[in-house]
Amino acid sequence: MPADFKFSEDFSVTDDIKRQFEDDGFIIVRGLLDSEEISLLKTAVESDDGMLKQAFELNDGKDRKSKMCLWNHPGNDITGMVGRCEKVVTTSEKLLGGEVYHYHTKLMMKEAFTGGQFVWHQDYGYWYKNGCLFPDMLTAFIPVDRADRRNGCLQILKGSHKCGRIEHVMIGGQTGADLERVNVLKEKLDLMYVEMDPGDALFFHCNLLHRSDQNNSEFRRWAFLCAYNMASNDPVYVHHCPQYTPIKKVPNSAIRTCTTMTDMTGKDFMNPKDDKTIKVSKDKA
To answer: Which of 156, 162, 170, 230 is 20 to 30 Å from the Cα of 177, by its Cα?
Structure first.
């Protein structure tokens, strides 16, 4: 059974889909956001009055940089409606098996010809250090632009979440997995290039190994990522991401009906200096 599904209004996570997620560490839902919804999201994140003012640069260890901004609470604008809507949140809850809360959302920006790589890592390699005791977490990765091999799409090792947490070290401005262990796993597991259109979604487990190449193409690669933690997994350390905060889910229609394109109120953007698992470029520190 492929881990690739087509979204429709009656889509829900069945026992078979959940089993697929547990076996592979991910599922892909094509067309989770339709053309109108992804257009609204794209307009929102491209606004000069919004996310772009909060972006910072990450060095990839190979003389390239990517930009990122991260916020802790979804808010009430278009980006917040995506992070709070049923088809994202309820899907995450059913995949993980219980109530989740919004851990953070981030906008990842790889510009044409200059965008940096992201090294092999597990998200739990970061989040473990934040005091999350269990890997009961996932991310919904939604491309804003077409993501393929040309512009540095996501690469994953299928089933690698079953290996548990791998030791991570600082590589450039990023925290990366122990490459000796990763290289052995690459001999045993399938490497997949996750090519997606805008509005598709990859839901992946926090222990799934993933990376991406530099963007050497003429096409930028922006992506919108919503991370969720189970309510039962409240971090034991107070850190730069939130403790358990109940999420106020909204119907899927809220993305279209939201009249607030950008509103930074209450989002609580991350200051990269507060995150010990990354290092920003010196000119942006």
So the answer is: 230
